[in-house]
Amino acid sequence: MEIIFVIIVGAVIGLLGKLIAPGDKDNIPIWLTILCGIGGVVIGWYIYSAFGGDGSNGVDWVRWIVAVIVAAVLVVIASSVTGRNTGKRTHA
Known about the structure:
Blueprint: H1 2-20, H2 30-50, H3 61-82
Helix pairs in contact: 1-2, 1-3, 2-3
């Protein structure tokens, strides 16, 4: 059940990461966005814990913000690696 939760949350976090990523990142496929979101959740939680985050009794907003930021970075990297970044390029 935990895997399904991470996939669902990863999809949402991936879409949020895509939303806040700089530039036009709409060209990466949805499956790659979901993978970036899952990576953002997992890596973000590790980063949060490494810097002393220990959770709270309610919703831990800082942990989720870190996950979204990591997902945004992963979306930018995925867009650059796949060559689907539609940013303006000048050829010399």
